[in-house]
Amino acid sequence: MLNNTVTGDEHLDRPFTIGNVNHGEGYVHVLDDTTLSIVMSTLDTITDLVGYLAKKERLLTGNKIVLANGEEELLAHYLGKLNRAGEHDFVVKGNMDVLHLGDGLWTNFVGSPERQAQIEYNRISYSWDRLIEKFAFHVMTGTEYIKSGHPLKDQEVMFRLLAAESRTRRRLLSVSLHQVLERSRNSGSAWDARVMLPSNPGDPYYLFLLAKRPEGVTDAEYRRMRIQLLSDYCNVAKLKSRDAKHIIGLATEAGDENRRSGRLDLRRWV
To answer: Which of 228, 247, 229, 230 is nearest to 238 (CA)?
Structure first.
């Protein structure tokens, strides 16, 4: 039970109730094994998780009395509402002094057609997660096909930027990348590229490059050519977008899926 009127030592007289445990010293989020699993598996990017925790803290330390039968009921309310900025939030209509979230909200939410559709829409977004894991593995193990020449601490910045994308943003980026991949199959051009603008100021620009491998060119020659082309594209993107703090370029082989090597190049420009 969550009850934000319970503070400090009052918890000793209210078993199984969580309020403001460390009153006056900052809010402490308390979750059990079940609710921790629910929250972490549902909000499975750092941006989505931190956004929820920050807005939850703001709600529970505000002027409204909040009573919730469990963390999952609070999460269901959060995911079912959008604020004026289009973000999930604890939106409460009217001038209510008390917000009571009883049993059943989470069960109804996970079983709703809207939630099932969201899960299906997000399926493609996990290709972004796999990209991060694949590149991070090769950087950490020193098995990059062509090393970037940048120290690990500089490459870490790039992975932090990739991982900072929310689930919704990862879905958008993954759909865009797959569209360019699909388009490259029947394209008569030697290469194809797309620039993805940031959602917020300061966020990275992304450049997706698909380059076909010319006949008679060795794999090593092709990879060097592709990385140079990626560098050229990113430099042009930087000239056209002077406000860009980071440009992350991703290149792979264009053409028929069965003929592609599956190798990718990833670089960051500042």
So the answer is: 247
The answer to whether 73 touches 106, Cβ cutoff 8 Å, is yes
Query: pLDDT of 187-230, one tens digit each?
Result: 778 889 999 999 888 899 999 999 988 888 898 899 889 999 99
Residue 100 Cα to chain centre, angstroms = 30
This prediction has a pTM of 0.87
Tokens representing 200 are 């917020």
CB atoms within 10 A of CB 79: 21
Measured CA to CA in angstroms, residue 116 lies from 122, 209, 235 at distances of: 10, 33, 41
Sheet of 18-20: strand order equals 18-20, 2-7, 65-68, 98-101
Which residues are CB-contacts of 148 (< 8 A; sequence separation ≥ 6)? 155, 267
pLDDT tens digits for 96-148? 899 999 999 999 999 999 999 999 999 999 999 999 998 888 877 776 666 55
Element (H, E) at 55: helix 46-60
Q: What are phi and psi of 153, to 5 degrees?
A: -65, -30
Q: Are 71 and 39 in contact (CB under 8 A)?
A: yes
DSSP 149-178: SS-HHHHHHHHHHHHTS-HHHHHHHHHHHH
pLDDT confidence bin for 155, thresholds 50/70/90: confident
